What we know:
alpha/beta, two-stranded antiparallel ribbon
Amino acid sequence: MDVRIETSWKSQLQEEFEKEYFIRLSEFVKEEYKTKTVYPPGKLILNAFDLCPFEKVKAVIIGQDPYHGPGQAHGLCFSVRKGIESPPSLVNIFKEIESDLGYRPYLNGDLERWATQGVLLLNATLTVRAHLAGSHQKKGWEEFTDAAINVLNRDKSNLVFFLWGAYAQKKGESIDRTKHLVLESVHPSPLSAARGFFGNKHFSRCNEYLVKNGIKPIDWR
Length: 221
């Protein structure tokens, strides 16, 4: 089937688009958008891929579900549109960046500025029904995003994977630690951040690894 996605990703994932699970997923998602309020807007479902072409990926941050409140989700994990208040987990990410790198990130929570530098901001599930967290889980998105992680793991080297919390760590179990850097800690949620997210220094560790491998570091502002 013809899926509108950035060209390099389309060539990498074309086999997935022809699989039965993805065809069923597409039918389910189309029906949900017709009959329910679903986030993000349809044209932004694959925004993480569109803003960060396959050949430009340097780092991958794995989230779980899109935000399910009005105006928040725009296809990038942890990110919200300009003008929307940053959710608590994102506030904690910014706090750790300031502590780790010594500068305050921009006040807005739109992380397109990271995506365009090569940070794939990938949720495991790419759509959600309004005000109903997890409502589109186990419909096929997880298999699709696993395929994206697998092709990155297989075909690229010296990527940095950020696995925050048990869910992301399970999703990243198959990543080859001999060819990529895997950074793990608890989730930045207020429920857990003080138990090991704060002070993990993942952002400086990422940049040190990239520089060591001749790759331009990320400006995390």
